[in-house]
Amino acid sequence: MDRSSRTNTTWRRHAAAALAALLAAAPAQAAPPAADPLDLRRAFEAAWARQPESLSLPSRRDAARAQQGAARSWTPEPAALALSNKTDRLNRNRGARELEVGVAMPLWLPGERSRSGALADAEAAAVESHTLAAQLAVAARVREAWWDWQRARLDADIADGQLASARRIAADVARRTQAGDLARADQHQADGAVAGAESALAQARAALAAARQQLKAGTGLMPPAEPAAAAPLAEPEPEPGRTAEPEAHAALRELQDRATVAERTAQLAATQSRANPELTLAGTRERGTDGEASQPSITLGLRIPFGGGARHDSRVARARAEALELQTRLALERERLQAEQEAARVRVDAARSQLAATERRARLARESRGYFDQSFQLGETDLPTRLRIEAEAADAERQAARTRIELAAALSAWRQALGLLPR
Fold it and tell me: In this structure, is residue 312 part of a structural domain?
């Protein structure tokens, strides 16, 4: 080996040693934090952040505060500056001049300012109640998509377990068929059960994919594809005091605030029977001919418009009709919500009773499956009976798990009927 080759080899060894030392001295890179698990509250918050009502809420609040500030001002409209200049230059041109500078200020009608402030306060409250009602509507859509996804996850999980059980039985049947203990027809029957389980699993996975996409469309978050290992935690049961306060429902509060806005609009319209008066203060400098001294003067004027007549009556009638319509709708909505809340409570009670029965059935079916599995292994039970017992046990497990989700969904629907957001 020549000198240049030995030099290159030595350089490579030193470089490799330096790189190894650098990597050893460098701190281990921290693993990226795991994403928060997707739950119902997080799904709702993500869905609400995408809504037009959420994005426009700051502007609506700014508008409500600006309207409240306008109702507290000294004049209903901004003052106006009036300028005029009169001269005889175009006809006789004797030097006559008249310059007038004034300010015109609109005046509140009697009671208009206080009622404008009341209307502004009512509209500010309506902005908040409208936001809560919009959040509740979003929560209803998210809850529906959420529990559809949970049902699809459960079905996929159960279908996967059924396929594993069918394959286990088919493997046992194949072993015993080769040993001459079972006929070829039994193996075909076991293989058919495996094919049926595979078909059910494919269908369940397709439904799960559709439910995931539906939830993603509403929230912007892609839920995990893996099937659930257990039923999800349910939302907490509503407090007893909350169930006795139907007026706290966001939909009722929104209608009540809208009715208040309509009533105060009608009161303000009744006050605004004419256009606002104007107070004018002007200063004038006038001279008759050239050479004369200008004579100053001050003008104080008051402009009082006539009544609005039919136009005013039309505005008042429309505002009162809107208030009456909203009050009637509020009464109907209150009755509907009370019936919906009672029906939701009854569904929760029924789901609890059904869950107790299905769990008892699942426990008995598991015990029976164990007995018949041992009997089948000993040759005391034929394959059709073993497959029937396996199907009954799987159906009992599925019903028990499905009932647990239905109870959680019923509790969620009860909270929705009470106007409670996801937790």
Answer: yes
Q: Domain total for the chain?
A: 1
Residue 384's domain comprises 45-74+108-273+308-417
Domain annotation covers residue 260: yes
Show pLDDT as tens, one digit a residue, over the chain (423 residues).
444 444 445 545 544 444 444 344 443 333 333 345 788 888 999 999 999 999 999 999 999 999 889 888 888 888 888 888 887 777 777 777 888 888 988 988 888 889 999 999 999 999 999 999 999 999 999 999 999 999 998 888 888 888 888 888 888 888 878 877 777 887 888 888 889 889 989 999 999 999 999 999 988 888 876 644 444 567 888 876 665 566 678 889 999 999 999 999 988 888 888 888 888 888 888 876 766 777 788 888 888 888 777 887 888 888 889 889 999 999 998 889 889 989 999 999 999 999 999 889 888 888 888 877 777 777 777 777 877 888 888 888 888 888 889 999 999 999 999 888 887
Q: Is the dihedral of CA 263, 264, 265, 269 positive or negative?
A: positive
Q: Domain holding 221: CATH number?
A: 1.20.1600.10
Does residue 407 sit within a domain?
yes
Q: Which of 416, 404, 418 is nearest to 40 (CA)?
A: 416
